[in-house]
Specification:
The complex is a heterodimer of chains A (234) and B (295). By secondary structure, chain A is of the alpha/beta class. Chain A has one domain: Rossmann fold. Chain A contains eleven helices and ten strands. In chain A, the strands form two sheets. In chain A, strands 6-7-8-3-9-10 form a six-stranded mixed β-sheet, sandwiched between helices. Chain A has a four-stranded antiparallel β-sheet with strand order 2-1-4-5, with helices on one face. The longest helix of chain A is centred in the C-terminal third of the chain and has 16 residues. The two termini of chain A are 34 Å apart. Chain B is mainly α. Chain B has a single domain, classed as ABC transporter involved in vitamin B12 uptake, BtuC. Helices cover 73% and strands 3% of the residues of chain B. A two-stranded antiparallel ribbon of chain B has the order 1-2. The radius of gyration of chain B is 19 Å and the shape is globular. Classes of the chains: A alpha/beta (234), B mainly alpha (295). The interface between A and B is medium-sized, with 28 and 16 residues.
């Protein structure tokens, strides 16, 4: 479904990501783990068009999307939920969700999608008229995911959804992520919390210094000595 | 005297508010201080002058036509002058804005001449200049009532647009978090175009109203009005639409009282004094948010 070939991204003249190739198949949860600064977020930002791609290609759903404008990428159903949530703080929860369904197709389905999002996150329904900036951290992350779902993603790219949240809420988020995945939404997950990410995923890639150094079944990586030492702290 | 000045101040303040929202909306979406905005206001006045005075179009229709033309002009300026610089350092766009402002001033000189022009009396419905109300020593003209009404209607429409319509909400979304707006597939270029159109139409209305109110229009009229409206936008908190409306009213009333109780010579200085006070005491404006420097 998503195929990235030999992606390279630089910040100015400083290379950040080299030769990254990865795939996400339909209905899969794939995680991208690695230390801070390994290039995980940069990779996502390049795929979603926030950062310019220096070389390499991105294919999604049979079409090339390398360097396409964000609204084209979003219309295809490739949605990124950015790190640190990036909500519209002075807009209500309902308005934030409405902005998620900005593209034409998503807007037609908005009412039905909203019912689904409210089912996944009943809290968002309770708080629908509250300003997004006044929500708790956990609620903000729910809203960020809900807003992304409003765009009717075929593939959802989540960047550090558990960042700064209490363990109980993180468990909740992972549970909901699996539930979303069961509705035929593929997920590409970037996480610091490698253990939980691997337990939830089908496959995973490990990034180090801007390169993919390891790839495989999530279960196999969970048992890999190197991964255990470096990322799971065991 | 007090009440009369208050009414005069509100009339003028409403006009400042109409111009100020144009500054503040554009700033909110692309962090550009559009110095050419005052010239849009000037073009609004001159276009209405041409439509109503020269071509004999009915006044109210001339006003609407002038609004539409200025909305187009605003979009054109963005397309030609600012869009190519969207990724350039902010200073480049700012200097370009000053250049566009000078260009438009001189274009107006070529088109309409450099002299002050009276807004032709025949082109304006006669009753507008008559007294509508007289009470307790206060007189209010139909024109003042009309200006109030138009200002209120424009503000109400603007409020409706930015809180209820899809494009209006997207404007606020772009202003609040540009990255998120991008990731949600909101087409920034189209939103910016819409913002310029909306702000320019409001500025054009202000130009027409002032042209008729003071009965004089000239190619540099946008400069003073532009600076004052910019001061109003800063006073309210740049980027904040209700703030710009409030700032405009406060400035208008301040000027009216300054002219009445100090000296009319001070009236222009009051805008600058208010701006300096705001920058010193409350740099984020009356309704703006306190925040760190954004790069």
């Amino acid at each position: 479904m998503l195929r990235v070939e030999q992606l390279a991204v630089s910040y100015g003249i400083i290379p950040a990501v080299h030769d990254v190739s990865l795939t996400v198949n339909e209905k899969e949860i794939v995680s991208l783990i690695g230390a801070n600064g390994a290039g995980k977020t940069t990779t996502l930002n390049a795929i979603s068009g926030v950062l310019p791609i220096r070389s390499g290609r991105v294919f999604f759903d049979g079409q090339e999307l390398t360097g396409a404008g964000s609204h084209r990428i979003v219309e295809r159903g490739l949605i990124q939920i950015p790190e640190e949530r990036h909500l519209f703080p002075d807009m209500s929860v309902a308005e934030n969700l409405e902005m998620g369904a900005f593209s034409a197709e998503a807007r037609h389905l908005a009412r039905r999608t909203l019912a689904w999002v409210h089912e996944l996150f009943p809290r968002l329904h309770e708080r629908r008229s509250q300003l997004a900036g006044t929500l708790s951290g956990g609620e903000q992350q729910m809203l960020a995911i809900g807003r992304g779902l409003m765009a009717r993603p075929k593939l959802l790219m989540l960047d550090e959804p558990s960042l700064g949240l209490a363990p109980l809420i993180v468990d909740d988020l992972f549970r909901i992520m699996v539930e979303i995945n069961r509705s035929d939404v593929a997920i590409l997950l970037v996480e610091q919390n490698a253990a939980q990410a691997l337990e939830t995923s089908h496959r995973a890639y490990v990034m180090e210094n801007g390169r993919i150094t390891l790839a495989g079944e999530a279960q196999a990586l969970l048992e890999d000595e190197q991964v255990r030492a470096a990322y799971l702290g065991i | 005297m007090f009440l009369q000045q208050l009414i005069n101040g509100l009339t003028l303040g409403g006009v400042y508010a109409l111009i100020a929202v144009g500054y503040t909306m554009v700033y909110g979406v692309i962090q550009l201080i559009n110095f050419a905005h005052g010239e849009i206001y000037m073009f609004g006045a001159f276009l209405a002058y041409t439509f109503a005075g020269t071509l004999g179009v009915p006044f109210y229709l001339a006003m609407v036509l002038s609004m539409l033309c200025c909305a187009g002009l605003g979009m054109l300026i963005d397309l030609v002058a600012y869009r190519p610089l969207r990724l350039a350092p902010r200073l480049a766009a700012l200097i370009t804005a000053i250049g566009v402002s000078l260009f438009l001033q001189n274009l107006a000189r070529i088109l309409w001449g450099a002299q002050n022009k009276p807004f032709p009396h025949a082109a304006v419905p006669a009753y507008l200049h008559e007294t509508a109300l007289r009470f307790a020593g206060v007189t209010v003209s139909y024109l003042q009532l009309f200006m109030f009404a138009v200002t209120l209607a424009m503000m109400a429409s603007l409020h409706f647009i930015i809180t209820r319509t899809r494009y209006g909400k997207a404007m606020r979304a772009c202003a609040q978090d540009r990255v998120a707006a991008y990731l949600m597939g909101i087409d920034m270029d189209r939103i910016v175009t819409a913002t310029f159109a909306l702000g320019s139409a409001m500025g054009a209305v202000a130009g027409v109203l002032v042209g008729v109110y003071f009965n004089v229009i000239f190619p540099t009229m946008g400069y003073t009005a532009g600076v004052k409206a910019f001061a109003a936008a800063v006073l309210g908190g740049i980027g904040n639409v209700p703030g710009a409306m409030l700032g405009g009213l406060v400035l208008g009333i301040g000027e009216a009282f300054g002219a009445a109780y100090l000296s009319s010579l001070y009236s222009h200085g009051i805008a600058y004094a208010i701006m300096i006070l705001v920058i010193v005491l409350r740099p984020y404006g009356l309704l703006g948010k306190r925040e760190g420097v954004k790069s």
